Amino acid sequence: MRRALDRLYDTAGALAAFCVFAIFVVMLGAAVCRELGIRTGGTDDLVSWMTAAAAFLGLAHTFRHGDFVRVGLFLEAMPPRRRRVFELLSLSIAALFTGYLLVSVAQYVFMGWQYNEMSTGLLVVPMWIPQLSFLIGALLLFVAVIDELVTVIRGRIPRYVEAVAERHARGDFSEDV
User: Three-class SS of residue 118?
Assistant: First the structure.
């Protein structure tokens, strides 16, 4: 199960990175076409959808690798026993909020599908299609938070703490700036 979840988080992170690269390709292609006098349409729509997809698909991967905004500075100053209690409390609150986010996004996407909401840009597509990245990202973040919560309940060190420690051991403090 551990390998499957890690592969899922890494795949979502790779898809987010692909979306960033696709944004680059679309914007570069639009700039070249503009210089050649070729009209392009819908590039703004594509870029906005891929930007949202990159942001949301990357959430779980970012969280698991310790690159997410957390209460780390506060927790690092605590003794181990108190830190574990506050880590459990923090992850429990995060689980509640990400669970609420997931339910809200699922309802939003479902309503868009149910009412056949269409985009209003140059590319007219059902809105639930680009919104799926938001739903998938929220689902993966919820799973990642629950995953870490279970890890801490079992008395283990969360993966995001291990990831930061590994970076620091290599002398990489770039994420701490």
Answer: strand
> Range with the lowest mean pLDDT among 44-58, 60-74, 78-92?
60-74
Terminal-residue alpha carbon distance, the chain: 34
Domain boundaries, the chain: 2-176
Phi and psi of 126, rounded to 5°? -60, 130
Cβ(61)–Cβ(9) under 8 Å?
Answer: yes
Hunting for tokens 């949202």 — which residue is that? Answer: 52
Residues 141, 101: Cα–Cα separation, whole Å: 10
Distance CA 104, CA 45 (A): 24
Does the pLDDT of residue 65 top 90, yes or no? no
Selection from 36-50, 134-148, 161-175 with the highest mean pLDDT: 134-148
Question: Coil, helix or strand for 126?
Answer: strand
Q: How far apart are CA 1 and CA 120, in angstroms?
A: 42
Give the residue among 6, 3, 44 at the shortest CA–CA distance from 26: 44
Q: Which residues of 61-75 are buried (b: 16+ CB within 10 A; e: fewer)?
A: bbbbbbebebeeeee
Of 150, 141, 149, whose CA–CA distance to 92 is shortest? 149
Residue 147's alpha-carbon distances to 96, 115, 160, in angstroms, are 13, 34, 11
Angle between helices 128-153 and 80-114 (to 10 degrees): 160
